[in-house]
Amino acid sequence: MREQLALADDAVSRLGRAWKWVQRRPAVAALCLALFVVADLGLGGVIWQWGHAERMLYYHKVALAEREWQAGGTGRADDLLDGCRPRYRGWEWHYLRRLCHPETRLLEVAEMSPTGIETTPDGSAFGVIGVNSKASVYELATGRERFRIPGFVKGWSGFLDGGARVAAIRLEDGAVVAYDLASGAETALRFPALESAEALAASGDGGRLAVVDARGISVLDLASGTVFGPWGVRDVRLRLDRAGKVLAQLSFGVPVVLDVETGRARALPAGARGVEVDVSPAGDRVAWLESTNGAEETVVPRVVLHLWDLVASAEIARVELSGGDYRGLRFSHEGTRIGALLGGTRVVVWDAATGAEVCVTAPVAQVAFAFAFLPGGGEVVLGASPVRVLAVGRDPASLTVRLAGHEKAVWRVASSPDRRRSSGS
Q1: What share of the chain is helix, strand, coil (3-state, %, to 5)?
Q2: Which candidate, 239, 237, 196, 233, places its Cα nearest to that of 216?
Q3: End-to-end CA distance of the chain, in Å?
Q4: Alpha-carbon distance 285 to 239, whole Å?
Q5: Is the peptide bond before 26 cis (omega within 30 degrees of 0)?
Q6: Can you say how many angstroms the Cα of residue 219 is from the centroid of all Cα atoms in its chain?
Q7: What residues pair up with 251 in beta bridges, in sequence order?
Q8: Alpha helices in 115-165 (DSSP H)
């Protein structure tokens, strides 16, 4: 107790001496107080400036990440977003992160750099063939391997009999073999005088199979065993409609549409040229991509999407596209959408009835060589490594519009009740 009283007396005596010193030297005391206040305020200002600089650096990184994403540099955009401090990450950071990673699922496959991909009619599985001439079928929900085609193959058909079987071309002898996915049983498909098959295409219902060999193109009806053809035109890029009654393919860069059962060619516009072609599941429309190189090497190629009504023999739409490398043109299972790979990193989707652009997916870091629609047309399976499932509905990036007269800055935006009109100020 005495020690505590002694300490209290000592503290009081020190405060007293300090107060007496202030009274004797008021100018010096005021100067010391001013220096203390200035130092305290200066330290606070430095801390505030440091925080302000960090926030500005965050906004700068976000802006750079957006530019990298727009230029296709998803990996660099990811690095910039990772470098942002978590305390500053707002809605813009999460928005860009979703743009850089639009996939709903990532699935690892054994095939190297998938060059072909198909989905089952019910969307439960997908098949992949890679540059290593290996092919397998995987469960879409889990990524589990359902069936691996034995040996090496140089082509495959997609799915037969509603997804129960798959056909492939054996690399060793060019024979066409069907495999039962449940039992693994092999069945040789007999095409008369088949001469080393080069490519296959199955109809949408899996009931017919088209094959390309040295003689041309033949179509086999799996139920009856009837063979249609061969026709002398031959190209590894061919498609059948859902019933296997209409075949579309390219012959020396010219889109050709054949009636399978009669062998007659359907009427297409004179002078039609194409680099990709597909026929709708109903067999009533055909789409092809035309690429025209400019007269000079510096001119960007002109790419045009053509939609043609096979029933009315009339053009549905002719869409001028921005220059680029488009490949893998195909209809969705229902025939309501058309898609193509752009530069191997994006999927562009159009409305099959009007040719209007529906969506352009965010670029992926790995180049893909194939894709396939899932039933419903709302998602695609992208043949990159790993395989990605991407949503292709209307994303915010595809809804960006320019308001005439407001190119520099817009402070407020209002839309009509039906959301078809907008105004800015």
Answers
A1: 25, 35, 40
A2: 233
A3: 76
A4: 12
A5: no
A6: 32
A7: 254
A8: none
Q: Which helix (H) or strand (E) holds 24?
A: helix 2-24
Structure tokens at 38: 């200035």
Q: Report the predicted TM-score, pTM, of the whole model to 2 decimal places.
A: 0.71
CB 134 within 8 A of CB 114: no
Q: Tokens in use for 94?
A: 């999460």
User: Residue 414 has which token pair?
Assistant: 């209002």
**Hunting for tokens 């020190």 — which residue is that?**
14
* Euclidean distance between CA atoms 219 and 236, whole angstroms: 14
The answer to whether 171 and 214 are in contact (CB under 8 A) is: no
Tokens of 109: 């496959």
Residues 15/20/24/28 CA torsion (nearest 10 deg): 10
List the one residue out of 279, 253, 267 whose CA is nearest residue 338: 279
Is 205's pLDDT higher than 70?
A: yes
Q: Are strands 176-180 and 165-170 parallel, antiparallel or unpaired?
A: antiparallel
The single residue listed with the structure tokens 């907008």 is 422
Other Cβ atoms within 10 Å of 226 Cβ, number: 11
Quickly count: other Cβ atoms within 10 Å of residue 75's Cβ: 14
CA distance 235 to 19: 102
Bridge-partner residues for 309, per DSSP?
Answer: 285, 314
Q: How many Å separate Cα 324 from the centre of its chain?
A: 15
* pLDDT the model gives residue 397: 36
Does the pLDDT value for residue 16 go beyond 90? no
Residue 352's pLDDT is: 94
For residues 211 and 176, the answer to whether their CB atoms sit within 8 Å is yes
pLDDT per residue over 371-385, tens digit each?
999 998 888 998 887
- Region 145-156: mean pLDDT is 89
- Long-range CB pairs of 307-314 (<8 Å, 24+ gap) are 307/338, 307/352, 307/355, 308/268, 308/269, 309/284, 309/285, 310/246, 310/257, 310/266, 310/279, 310/283, 310/284, 310/285, 310/286, 311/284, 313/266, 313/267
Is 367 exposed, middle or buried (CB count within 10 Å of its CB: 0-12, 13-18, 19+)?
middle
The residue among 279, 287, 315, 319 whose CA lies nearest residue 303 is 319
Dihedral of CA 246/309/390/60: which sign? positive
Q: Are strands 357-360 and 371-373 parallel, antiparallel or unpaired?
A: unpaired
Q: Which residue has the tokens 């790419």?
A: 303
Contacts of 44 (CB under 8 A, 6+ apart): none
